[in-house]
Design brief:
The protein is an alpha+beta fold. It has helices at 26-37, 52-64, 120-135, 150-158, 181-185; strands at residues 9-13, 17-23, 68-75, 78-86, 103-110, 140-143, 162-168, 173-180. It has an 8-stranded mixed β-sheet, sandwiched between helices. α1 (26-37) packs across α2. The longest helix has 16 residues, at 120-135.
């Protein structure tokens, strides 16, 4: 399957306001992304010791891969989060489950902040799910966060992900989880009580 990626995406959150996404521009964005991925809160991205050149190389490789996309997430028009979207059938996940047509994989990272905004990460996750279902036309979203990353498990549950099983990947043990549009529409993110 070839993913059709939108060049930009906009979502108006009912409480938090404007969210937007645009493709990462590796030469311009790598210094800022380097600050984010080397911050202690980003330990599960496994880039703590990366240099700016490493981050640039990573994002140039993503840009060159037709099954992988990186978006700079904007909140009120300022860069605040990173989203990676990928085709699970072209990833290491294909060795641990049978990808279905319409499966779309995702990773998300919010920037470190000295002034947290209440509900911000939930707003980011809701925006990302709209990107995947409405922008990419996903039938099902697939994630594989580290089994020890409790914060992201809670956020995934908030938008409707159902955990499937723990899987051994190259650099981690991941919790393979899925979310269909129906799961998302029935989630706490859409105001449906758990």
């Amino acid at each position: 399957m070839t993913l059709k990626a939108p060049t930009s995406f906009y979502h108006l959150h009912d409480r938090l306001g404007d969210f937007g996404l645009r493709p990462v521009d590796p030469p311009t964005d790598s210094p800022l992304l380097h600050e984010w991925v080397t911050h202690p809160k980003a330990k599960y991205w496994m880039m703590q010791d990366a240099s700016v050149a490493d981050v640039l190389a990573e994002h140039e490789a993503i840009e060159a891969d037709p099954g992988h996309f990186a978006y700079m997430g904007l909140y009120h028009y300022r860069a605040r989060f990173l989203v990676e979207v990928y085709d699970p059938a072209r990833s290491e996940l294909a060795a641990v489950y049978d990808p279905a047509a319409g499966d779309v994989g995702m990773h998300v990272l919010t920037a470190p902040s000295d002034r947290p905004i209440p509900g911000f990460t939930k707003g980011v996750m809701t925006t990302v799910m709209h990107l995947l279902f409405d922008g990419f036309g996903a039938k099902r979203v697939v994630v594989e966060p580290d089994v020890g990353n409790e914060a992201i498990h809670r956020l995934n549950e908030y938008v409707g992900f159902q955990s499937h099983k723990a899987v051994q990947l190259k650099d981690k043990q991941g919790l393979l989880s899925f979310c269909t549009r129906i799961d998302f529409e029935r989630s706490a993110a859409k105001g449906v009580p758990a």
